[in-house]
Amino acid sequence: MDPNQPPQQVQYQQQQVVSPQPAVTYVVNNQNTFGTTPCNFTCANCGYQGQTYTSTEIGAFALLLALVLFVLGFWCCCWIPLILDGCKDTSHSCPQCKRVVGTKTVM
Ligand SMILES: [Zn+2]
């Protein structure tokens, strides 16, 4: 009862797959992450880290509201949605390279 087991020589094949480091993927900020106030972000264009520069612009909601007021006969005040910040879209851009990184729409 002598187990005569020859030593098994296992040859390991070492495979070193040198995979290149994946490129840094930037989180694409969609409209939901941007609000009406400046928020922290990392610019994918110039690498700036900080708060976004926000500016308001007349969006579809303001135009639609103005049109509705105009149709309803409120000609004297149909322009009000066009100047109210609450009815405007907020555009977030990089203060360093001026690239627009996101837009917060009212609707
Ligand atoms: Zn930038």
TrEMBL record:
Family: Belongs to the CDIP1/LITAF family.
PROSITE patterns according to UniProt: LITAF
Name assigned to this protein: LITAF domain-containing protein
Domain LITAF: 23-106
Alphabetized UniProt keyword annotations: Membrane, Metal-binding, Transmembrane, Transmembrane helix, Zinc
Compartment(s) where it occurs, according to its Swiss-Prot or TrEMBL record: Membrane
Keyword field contains DNA repair: no
Native source organism of the sequence: Acrasis kona
Domain of life: Eukaryota
Regions crossing the membrane: 58-84
A GO term for molecular function: zinc ion binding
Membrane-related topology note: Peripheral membrane protein
InterPro entries documented for this protein: LITAF, LITAF_fam
GO cellular component labels: membrane
